[in-house]
Amino acid sequence: SGTGRLVPCTDHGGIVTAIPVIDARGLLCPLPVLRLRKVLLDRPAGTRLRLVATDPMAVVDVPHFCAEAGHVMIEMRELGDGAHEFTVERGPSAPSAASGLTPGNI
Q1: How far apart (Å, rounded) are the C-alpha atoms in residues 27 and 4?
Q2: Which residues of 1-28 are buried (b: 16+ CB within 10 A; e: fewer)?
Q3: What are the residue ranges in the chain where pLDDT is below 70?
Q4: Residue 18: its pLDDT value, please?
Q5: How many CB atoms lie within 10 A of CB 69?
Q6: How far apart are CA 62 and CA 106, in angstroms?
Q7: For residue range 36-63, what is the model confidence (pLDDT) as tens digits?
Q8: How many helices (H) and strands (E) does the chain have?
């Protein structure tokens, strides 16, 4: 859909998973990472999210963002049709929205 919105994830069997998904298909660098960062800022440490992106640079950008921002890259997998799914866990030392930091400070 390319909107970067948070949507429930459904597996091929139609079962809704507990991990929210950020749909960043069709968005180009740096938008997939910016969407991920924005959602992670509002979540407590240990929260897991999935990001689905079609931008080829996401396979470099998302792991780099996680390493730099203190988040944990749990899994990266290819979905086909140029899409990749990244499962990310919010790190304990990552700044939160409540800390007063803005996305521009991170």
Answers
A1: 7
A2: eeebeeeebeeeeeeeeeebbbbbbebe
A3: 1-17, 94-106
A4: 78
A5: 19
A6: 14
A7: 999 999 999 999 999 999 999 999 999 9
A8: 2, 5
- Please report the pLDDT score of residue 36 as a whole number: 97
Say which amino acid occupies 59: V
Main-chain phi, psi angles of 57, to 5 degrees = -70, -15
What is the distance between the alpha carbons of residues 87 and 17, in angstroms, rounded to a whole number? 13
Take residue 71 and report the two structure tokens written for it. Answer: 């988040």
Task: Respond yes or no: is residue 29 known to be catalytic.
Answer: yes
Q: Which of 28, 29, 45, 76 is catalytic?
A: 29
Please state the length of the chain.
106
